[in-house]
Structures are given as C-alpha cells and as structure tokens.
Amino acid sequence: MSFQRRRYPYYNRLRRLLPLIFVVSLSLLILFAFLSFLAPPPGDSDRFPPRVRYTSINIGANDAIKSGGFRVPRNGGRSDRDIWSSRNAEFFYGCSNASSKFLNAKAVTRNDRYLAIATSGGLNQQRTGIVDAVVAARILNVTLVVPKLDQKSYWKDASDFSHIFDVDWFMSFLSEDVRIIKQLPLKGGKTWSPSRMRVPRKCNERCYINRVLPVLHKRHAVQLNKFDYRLSNKLSDDLQKLRCRVNYHALKFTDPILTMGNELVRRMRLRSKHFIALHLRFEPDMLAFSGCYYGGGDKERRELAAIRRRWKTLHINNPEKQRRQGRCPLTPEEVGLMLRALGYGSDVHIYVASGEVYGGEESLAPLKALFPHFYSKDTIATKEELEPFSSYSSRMAALDFLVCDESDVFVTNNNGNMAKILAGRRRYFGHKPTVRPNAKKLYRLFLNKENTTWEEFTSRVRSFQRGFMGEPKEVRAGRGEFHENPSTCICEDTEARAKAQVESRKLGKKNKSINKDTAATVTNDDQTEEDEPDWSEPDYEEEQSDLQDRGLYNGTSLDYDDPSTSDEPELEEMLSD
Predict the structure, then answer these.
(1) Counting beta carbons within 10 angstroms of the beta carbon of residue 501, is it exposed (0 to 12), middle (13 to 18) or buried (19 or more)?
(2) From CA 217, how far away is CA 113, in angstroms rounded?
(3) How far apart are the first and last CA of the chain?
(4) Residue 417 near residue 122, CB atoms below 8 Å
(5) What SS3 state is found at 441?
(6) Residue 118 CB coordination number (10 Å)
(7) Numbered ranges of CATH 3.40.50.11340 in the chain
(8) 248: which DSSP letter?
C-alpha cells in the first residue's frame, strides 16, 4: 500500500510534464525541417564532386593564387617551347594554286544554267556554305548566283552578302574558277523563280551530278536550301584547292568591318606585344545544348532545362557521359588553369570573344584572377564605335573573327564552326598556335586536382595537350573537317628543312629538335584519334552504302525541298558557330 501511494504522485508529476516535452520536441522538429530546406541537395556534391560550381580560386600572397588543393604561381614557369609560336612552322606554307589540268571557267561553264544557294546558321556556318557553293558550281559547270545569307533563323540578322563580304572582290578573284553573277537574270521579262531542293550532307561529286544536274538540265535554275556542310571532305586535289582559294583569299570582309577589326587588334597590340584570343563558349544556350552539369544545383538545372525546352528535338544527355566523351566546355577557371600550366603567366593579355557568360562575373572571376589583363571588344571600343555593328550579330561576330585570327595564340573551348575555320586558316597562314583543350583527358585531371601538386598538374596538362596545339602535321591528312584541316593546301618546304639540318650538323649539333618534333608528330596523331570527341558524320557514299547493305535505300530520294522534312535542330546550328 505504501508503494502504491508513493507511485501515484510520481505519475501525476509525469502527466504534468508531458505537454512541455511535446512542445519542445515539436519545436526541434520544425527547426530541423527548416534547416533541411535551406541546405543544398546532398546528391550534387556526391554525384559531381570536384567540378564545383564556378570558382575555387582565392587570391593569396603576391607570388601565388590558391586553387583547390594547390597554389597556382603567377608566372608561367619554365617551358620546353616558345609559347608564342609553333615548332617547325617555318617549313610549312599555304599553297592553293590550281594545277594546269584545272581549266578556266570560260571553257567549261554552261552560261544558261544557274545555281543559287541559301545558307544556314550563323556567320561561320554560312561561310562554310559559301565556300562549298563555289565548289558545287564548279562540279556542275554552271553559273553561281551570289549566295543568300540566312536572315530567318535564331539571330534574325538582316545582313546580306554585300554587308559582310566584299562582293566585287569575291566575284573578281574567282572569275577564272567559276562564273558568278549577283542575281538571276529575268526570264520572259519576269523574275526567275528557281526550283528548290536539298542535297544530303557530305554530298560528293557523283552525288551532285546524279541529283542536281538532271534538275538543272530540265529547269535551268536550281536553289539549294539549308546549304551547310553539304559537300564531302573527299574531293579531288584541284577542288580542295579551290575551297582554299575561296575561304582564305576570295572571302574578304567589307571595309567598315576590316577597319574596325584592325583597330581592335591595334589596341590590343598597344597594350602588349603578344596576346591570346579566347573563344570561351560558356553561354547559357551552349551549356543547355551540351547537356553538361557544372555543380549549380537545382537553380542551374531549372534554368538550363527551360532553355532546352525551346527546342523540341533536343535530346536529354547524361551529363557524366558527355563530360567523359570530351563534349563539355571547360569552365572559365579550368581554361585559366590550363593556360597557366601551358606557360602563360598573369602578365599575358587576353581578348575574350564570347556572348553572355553563364553565371556572369561569378563565373569569370577565377579566370580574371589568373589573367587580370582581360578584354573584349566592348572594353576596348566605345559604344559609339560599335554602334554600326551592334544590331547585327554577323557583323559583331566578324569583328571577333578578325581579332582571333590576328592573335598570337587562339584558344577555343569547343569545336564549333568558328573554331574549325580559324584552326584551318591559322594552319594555312603559318601554323599560328591554336589551342584546343584535350577535354577527354583534362576532365579526369580536373576531377582529381585536389589530390595533386601544381608541378604534377602542369606536367600532365602539357602531356595531354600534345597534338592539340595547332602545330604542323599533328593531325593526319584527311582527318576531320576539311575547313579545320586543309591538308591538301599545306605544302612543306623540304629544301629549307634539309638545309636547316645540314647547317645544324656543321655546327656540330645533331638536329635533335627537328627529329624529336617529327617523332612527336606521329605520337600526337595517335593521341588525337584516341582523345578527340567523335563529331564526324559519314560521307554520302559511305552513308548510301550502309543503307543499301541494310536494304533501306533503292537509289531514289526526295530531291525537291519538302518543308515538312525536318533537318538538324536549329539550336545545333546556333551553338556550333
């Protein structure tokens, strides 16, 4: 009885405490839920570790910058090469003259047959179409009408050919190769409306003769629509050299564009003897199209997904797979670290050709910390100076093209049309250094940079970038797009090379550098094949052969332009420029 009497007061006190315990527990649960809501999703850092959002750089002492697990020196360190020139470039030169077998246009052209072209995409994609249009007209031996530029796609640029290129120079320079007129003649006193059709991508000589020539004989005038990359990489040497004459000599920008572009180059030269031009390609649409992820959490996913939804044909890619395959642009910080590892110090001046950078100044901050001498056309020219060009995307792109072409080193962050055309042009005019990140290899290096020293990081970057620096013979002839690797139009001065070897021996030194570089070229080509992202498409003959093997092609095709026939996503055209 005494035990029960003592127990009742105990339970009474416990009953009075229960509401208090409940209130405290509920408060703690609410606080925990609130903190969980504010915290970032745990999966972000686990699934995509060290490629952190935009920046891991901190400015430290005067002699170094902190990035991740190591301190980045402000100078470029010792290099085993001249960082402003390509090895052995003096032994190679552009050569695009026609052979004696290539007859004058007057001897082969049918003056009553006309080929019109409607190009597609941005400035540089349209440039490839113009170049290939001249060659297509020569294959068909017809008169070419000055190509129409794309005024309806994403950019809505109203410029025509004569606003961008010197049309009279274009026609005059090519007069011995192809007859060119500015517009179709009248037919029966009325405007002539040509038959419209398309040809497959990578269409070769036989393809044009089989598909287009019969229509030309019947209708006398044909317009090829959506004309981009519609000509094979595999043509006769004379036709390839014609491509080079068009691309590197006949296509000259108009005087206003040349004058402003040369002034931008002059202002960069006033600041420094040497400068790098960087085609950054870190715009929101580029990242959305690539399907890559950069650690920005749900905000990044929402923003890039919203852009992707504008194009219904765009597939959703696996971000990790895209990165492993080398299809993701490097972040601005990664570009900066790569350049520092290649030997470019903080005193180097950089001109950036880029649209709106995703993440804005937060994204650019680490690159600017590494390279504080950071410029663009908007910072070295006034708003008034750029006003005649600023409403036209193609004219603004032409200004960037000129500065990038004249730079001592050109760095590209993707393999789009501008990168390909400039890479080929810089090879043709003296193999000026052109750096393309070996993204397949660098991806793994950046993932693990927290666990390496700067010295090891530098050594591996330089090793990975062999074959990606724009040096002679680093890519085997015939590989890639001809606009990027115009091997038929690159000649070697074997006499000068042999003379250099003899003079070196006379001085009692074996020509180790030349031999070493020649050997390295073979190694570099193998490495390029292994590391290069697979951007290639089959040529027309290969494609048709494959279809025939599978019983899907019977030799007929849709020749005339069918508006319902969809082609590549317009976004892809936009981003590749």
Answers:
(1) middle
(2) 7
(3) 94
(4) yes
(5) helix
(6) 22
(7) 105-252
(8) I
- Letter for the amino acid at 451? N
Burial class (CB within 10 angstroms; exposed 0-12, middle 13-18, buried 19+) of 488: buried
Q: Which CATH architecture has domain 105-252?
A: 3-Layer(aba) Sandwich (3.40)
- Range list for CATH 3.40.50.11350 in the chain: 72-93+256-282+329-492
**Cβ partners under 8 Å of residue 485, min gap 6:** 423, 424, 427, 475, 477, 478, 479
CA of 450: how far to CAs of 75, 362, 375, in Å? 21, 21, 30
CB 197 within 8 A of CB 169: no
Give the start-end residues of each E strand in 13-141.
57-59, 64-67, 70-73, 92-94, 110-119
**Correct CATH for 72-93+256-282+329-492 of 3.40.50.11350, 1.10.3720.10, 2.60.120.10, 3.50.50.60:** 3.40.50.11350
pLDDT digits (tens, 9 = 90+) for 80-119: 789 999 999 999 999 999 999 999 999 999 989 999 999 9
Model pTM score: 0.81
Tell me the one-letter amino acid at 333.
E
pLDDT tens digits, one per residue of 34-85: 555 544 444 433 333 444 444 455 554 455 676 666 789 998 887 778 999 9
The answer to whether 330 touches 294, Cβ cutoff 8 Å, is no
CA 328 to chain centre: 11
Give the β-pairing of 70-73 and 64-67.
antiparallel
Q: Sort 354 into a burial class: Cβ within 10 Å, 0-12 / 13-18 / 19+.
A: middle
Q: How open is the CA angle 491-494-497, to the nearest 5 degrees?
A: 120
